[in-house]
Write a structure and sequence with these properties.
This is Carboxyl-terminal protease. InterPro entries: ClpP/crotonase-like_dom_sf (IPR029045), PDZ (IPR001478), PDZ_sf (IPR036034), Tail-specific_protease (IPR005151). Keywords: Hydrolase, Protease. One of its GO terms (molecular function) is serine-type peptidase activity. By secondary structure, this protein is an alpha+beta fold. The chain has three domains: about 130 residues, no CATH class; about 90 residues, Pdz3 Domain; about 210 residues, 2-enoyl-CoA Hydratase, Chain A, domain 1 (Alpha-Beta Complex). Helix content is about 20%, strand content about 25%.
Length: about 500
């Protein structure tokens, strides 16, 4: 057996992001057969040790999981035997260590996949789409939400609002859509369709798309300034809170100011979250840069909460873009608004919800759309780096255990706004309910796009007689983003209060 010789508890850190990986683990049959035959002394327990040590210290529900109890083991030998008795890492994690109500912890055998995901880098063809059922059947159809710039899809004859019902000649249904659209095939052909009189019918058109490695999506998809009467309405569609995009956001707001913007429509309908630090910058660009105003507070498990003070948990509005991730630390071009219109739906989560909730005590937040996902929790990426508290730090890559390349992103906190509100696990309910109409998705950023048009109507009072009847509501059962739970993340911070943690101690 590989001896770990680690203390049963290490007190560590803080930080934050966010979903349980629902994919079935792929385990080689030969490995399973070997595990059934080996003696306990031959079981490698390094991964299990990494999981247990990390969750025992940081996991938000540590006190609710008996197997993570501080007094679970009397001796180091008992601890190592316990790890040995659980030879399959994923089963150990899922069945012994995760809290039953945890919806958002996730992991990967290759931590770099999680690093890339949080940076908006993926293997993708650039097609972002929603999926819905056809009537009361098990048949599934897809509709294009938007196309990522400079992707394979951006070079093909396919645009927002297009509909497809099959892949490679096979009709989509409840049981096959995951394999057909999210399987191992890098290239597939979509069989297109059309909607006539609320009926979806196939057409003689096929679009072949190919996924490419390291596609980096620009999170700022659309910006526009719309003049309506005496109002200048800024529009921003922002699709992921990516670290390093703060300066680009600041440039957008500088343009809004230069054009005399009086009102803002922030479109987060497809934004599942990301960096809390970026969310703080965006909130400050909207409302103001008073660094004495609390935007949100993080709440940790009892052990961590006991050693943290307000300087570790309180997050305030900011007045610069910051210097992390290549930022210029430039002064923010804030609009200093007292009211904002936010388009948010069942495709909005985490950092998107944090902006909405965080701004609420300071200004009028008008939520137009549908109920959001409901992610009031945060997590951070951990790797097997005991001397660094297991917190991922890109400057310490050489210190990661070469035998354990796993990444674990568990829920470690809950967030609340300055009024102490955090009760939105069931999602944020809209002030003005309006679903997307698949028969009329419109052009993003255009004043006639239904959700934006409804916001403009609310701002100006003009067009009060316009009907916003939804003929075929989205009723999203899944999407290219929602299928991957890693997209719904809230990374609030990526540093550790080193003055307040003791490293894993070797015996």
């Amino acid at each position: 057996m590989k001896k770990i010789f680690l203390s049963l508890l290490f007190i560590g850190a803080m930080v934050i992001s966010c979903n349980k990986n629902d994919d079935d683990p792929i385990i080689d049959e030969e490995v399973i057969e070997t595990l059934e035959e080996v003696t306990p002394d031959e079981v490698d327990i390094e991964v299990q040790n990494f999981f247990w040590q990390t969750l025992n210290t940081y996991y938000f529900w540590q006190g609710d999981v008996p197997d993570l109890s501080d007094d679970k083991f009397d001796t180091q030998t008992a601890y190592e035997q316990y790890l040995t008795d659980n030879p399959i890492p994923i089963d150990f994690l899922e069945n012994k260590l995760l809290f039953s109500e945890d919806r958002f912890t996730f992991y990967d055998e290759d931590y770099t996949q999680l690093v890339n995901n949080s940076a908006g880098v993926s293997k993708s063809n650039g097609l972002q789409f929603g999926l819905s059922l056809i009537g009361n059947t098990d048949d599934v159809f897809g509709y294009v939400e938007y196309i990522v710039k400079n992707s394979d899809a951006s070079t093909k004859d396919i645009i927002r609002g297009d509909v497809f019902i099959g892949v490679n000649g096979t009709r989509l249904n409840r049981t096959n859509y995951i394999d057909l659209l999210f399987g191992d095939n890098d290239t597939y052909t979509l069989n297109m369709a059309e909607i006539v009189d609320n009926t979806i019918s196939p057409i003689d058109k096929n679009i072949t798309l190919t996924k490419v490695e390291n596609l980096q999506e620009d999170p700022i998809l659309v910006t526009n300034v719309i003049t309506s009467g005496d109002r200048k309405i800024g529009y921003l569609m922002y699709n992921q809170f990516v670290a390093g995009s703060e300066d680009a956001l600041n440039t957008v707001f500088a343009d809004f100011i230069a054009q005399g913007v009086t009102d803002l429509v922030l479109d987060l309908r497809y934004n599942l979250g990301g960096r809390g630090t970026t969310a703080t910058v965006l909130a400050s660009l909207i409302h103001g840069t008073n660094t004495n105003n609390l935007l949100f507070r993080t709440i940790y498990n009892a052990k961590l909460q006991a050693i943290f003070d307000s300087s570790d948990t309180d997050n305030f509005f900011v007045n610069t873009t910051g210097s992390a991730n290549g930022g210029t630390n430039a002064a923010l071009n804030t609009l200093n608004l007292s009211k904002v219109y936010i388009l948010a739906t069942g495709g909005s989560a985490s950092a998107s919800e944090l902006v909405m909730v965080g701004l609420e005590p300071y200004m009028d937040v008008v939520h137009i759309g549908t109920t959001t996902v409901g992610k009031n929790q945060g997590s951070i990426l951990f790797v097997d780096d005991p001397d660094g508290g297991n917190v991922y730090d890109e400057t310490r890559i050489d210190n990661i255990n070469p035998n354990v390349q796993w990444g674990l992103q568990p829920i470690i906190s809950r967030v609340e706004n300055s009024a102490g509100f955090s009760d939105y696990a069931d999602g944020l309910i809209p002030d003005i309910e309006l679903d997307e109409d698949i028969t009329n998705l419109g052009i993003l950023g255009d004043a006639n796009e239904p959700m934006l048009a409804r916001a403009i109507q609310e701002i100006t009072g003009v067009g009060a007689k316009r009907s916003f009847e939804v003929v075929m509501p989205a009723n999203v059962m899944s999407s290219s983003k929602l299928n991957n739970p890693r997209n719904a993340t809230l990374l609030l911070n990526n540093s550790v209060p080193t003055s307040k943690f003791s490293l894993i101690q070797k015996k």
